[in-house]
């Protein structure tokens, strides 16, 4: 009998004719925690990927499209989960408290969503994880965006390239910034490796979209033909 990776309660498997006759994959999170991690459901915004009541672009994306600085930086983001309170708790434990194993909780839905949105829809897939600064990497012991990219790579065999790096002077935690400060910050990225093929940016959370826009902008300016993004939560 296993324990839930999130709440640590014992997982009691339900006995059905199916799992009596056929081998069943062992659950890693309990049914109660699984219910608290709903999947984003269509219709979704064609820009940022948030849930909507109708098809098209959300009001926030329409504003971005009218902004003189950003209207030429097209964003197409797909996410797996809505960033609600329980997901915030799980990501906080995974991201800031070093519980790396929690990534297994997302594996099934993450891979399913990636295959739905991207796999075999592009001739060549290149994943570019959003980089951390050296200080953040030392603090957290791992880059959560890279962990997600490597999880996809391990199961679907797509290339992972570290095409971006963060400027060393960029030290402020974005999670502590107000929306206004996030929108006003300079581009924190520089190009490490130019990309001549379409790129899928990988990150854990899409909040204001500023990080994705900065990364997209610098990749496009360096000659990358197309940039989309895939994030764990929106």
TrEMBL record:
TM ranges: none
SUPFAM superfamilies, per the entry: PRTase-like
Record's protein name: Competence protein ComFC
Family to which this protein belongs: Belongs to the ComF/GntX family.
InterPro entries, A to Z: ComF/GntX_DNA_util-trans, PRTase-like, PRTase_dom
Species this protein is from: Saliterribacillus persicus
């Amino acid at each position: 009998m296993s324990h839930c990776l999130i709440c640590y309660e014992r997982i009691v498997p339900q006995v059905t004719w199916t799992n009596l006759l056929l081998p069943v994959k062992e659950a890693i999170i309990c049914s109660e925690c699984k219910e608290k991690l709903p999947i984003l459901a269509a219709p979704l915004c064609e820009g940022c990927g948030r849930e909507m009541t109708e098809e098209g672009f959300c009001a926030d994306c329409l504003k971005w499209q009218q902004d003189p600085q950003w209207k030429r930086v097209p964003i197409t983001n797909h996410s797996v989960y809505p960033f609600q309170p329980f997901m915030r708790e799980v990501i906080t434990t995974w991201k800031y408290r070093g519980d790396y194993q929690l990534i297994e909780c997302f594996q099934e839905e993450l891979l399913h969503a990636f295959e739905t949105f991207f796999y075999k829809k592009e001739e060549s897939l290149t994943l570019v994880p959003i980089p951390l600064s050296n200080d953040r990497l030392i603090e957290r012991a791992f880059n959560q965006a890279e962990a997600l990219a490597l999880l996809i790579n391990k199961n679907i065999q797509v290339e992972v390239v570290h095409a971006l790096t963060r400027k060393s002077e960029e030290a402020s935690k974005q999670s502590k910034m107000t929306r206004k400060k996030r929108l006003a910050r300079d581009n924190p990225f520089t190009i490490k490796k130019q990309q001549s093929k379409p790129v899928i940016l990988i990150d854990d959370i899409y909040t204001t979209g500023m990080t994705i826009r900065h990364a997209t902008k610098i990749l496009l300016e360096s000659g990358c033909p197309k940039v989309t993004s895939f994030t764990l939560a929106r």
